[in-house]
Amino acid sequence: MRKKIVAGNWKMNKSYEEALSLVSEIDNMVKDEVNGDVAVIVAPPFPYLQSVGKLVQGNDKMHLAAQNVSEYESGAYTGDVSASMLKSVGVEYVIIGHSERRLYHHEDAQTLYKKMKLSIAQGLKPIFCCGEPLEERDADRHFEYVGQQLKDSVSYLSNQEFDQIVVAYEPIWAIGTGKTASSQQAQEMHAYIREQLSRMFDAEAAYNCTILYGGSCNPGNAQELFAQEDIDGGLIGGASLKSRDFTDIIKSF
Ligand code: PEP
Q1: pTM
Q2: Substitution site in 5, 170, 250 for ligand 1 pocket (most atoms within 8 Å of beta carbon)
Q3: In angstroms, rounded to a whole number, what is the distance separating the alpha carbons of residues 55 and 177?
Q4: DSSP letter at 175?
Q5: How many of the other CB atoms lie within 10 Å of CB of 140?
């Protein structure tokens, strides 16, 4: 059975106090209301990682993620944070290749590969994001586009490294827009991603890989999305900033 995951990407939101309240609320709701076998991940901004991590330490359903990591191991890289630094403060997962980082920080495929490789070497689990812009979908090139993203970054991992990653399919036109991919659109892309991964690695490893859907996922659409055969949970942006909505999404399996 592959792991079910709901991950909340807080992006650059919340004050320190608000972040601590949010995670405490989520932690309590998860303890009280979530029975199934699902891993809940929160990805707060860097300065809050350690404090947020301490608050969820006693809850074995809750896990900590960073939103980014340096492609370098250490050294003169002002403003960067290394995989070993993240590991040392209790981070378990790291989001890599989010479309906002590809777009605003010009992160290319080889950089993303380096980030994944270094993270895995430090014992972190990358959540590798892929997904097409609207023009590619409109031109019916979305499968090709996402296939190429996987080829350009993920395919360079070894079999052992691949076992450590989670993939998130996030169509860019659905991120923060309120426009969700239909469950059918999401399922067909997830099945395609799994098929591509089975060619790059092996069928069993691809079958066991958790593939999350991201893009305007909310308590009203999560159940239908998560019911799809190849959708193993969600990467949640906006709705992860509200404890009630986020918990209701977690309960949608
Ligand atoms: C995201 O940015 O990863 C995301 C899925 O955002 P939202 O849920 O707000 O569309």
Answers
A1: 0.98
A2: 170
A3: 31
A4: T
A5: 8
The minimum-distance atom of ligand 1 relative to the CA of 98 is: 3
Nearest CA to ligand 1 atom 4: 237
What's the confidence (pLDDT) of residue 226? 98
Residue 164 per-residue DSSP state: T
End-to-end Cα distance, the chain: 14
Neighbour tally for 199: CB within 10 Å:
13
CB of 216 closer than 8 Å to CB of 248: no
Go through the chain and tell me how many residues it has. Answer: 253
> Could you count the other beta carbons within 10 Å of the beta carbon of residue 9?
26
**Phi, psi angle pair for 212, to nearest 5°:** -95, 150
pLDDT tens track for 46-63: 999 999 999 999 999 999
**Predicted local confidence at residue 222, as pLDDT:** 98
Residues 59, 245: Cα–Cα separation, whole Å: 19
Low-confidence residues of the chain, pLDDT below 70? none
How crowded is residue 185: how many other Cβ atoms within 10 Å of its Cβ? 15
Predicted pLDDT of residue 1: 79
Residue 205 near residue 163, CB atoms below 8 Å: yes
Q: Minimal CA–CA distance to 123: which of 163, 159, 83, 70?
A: 83
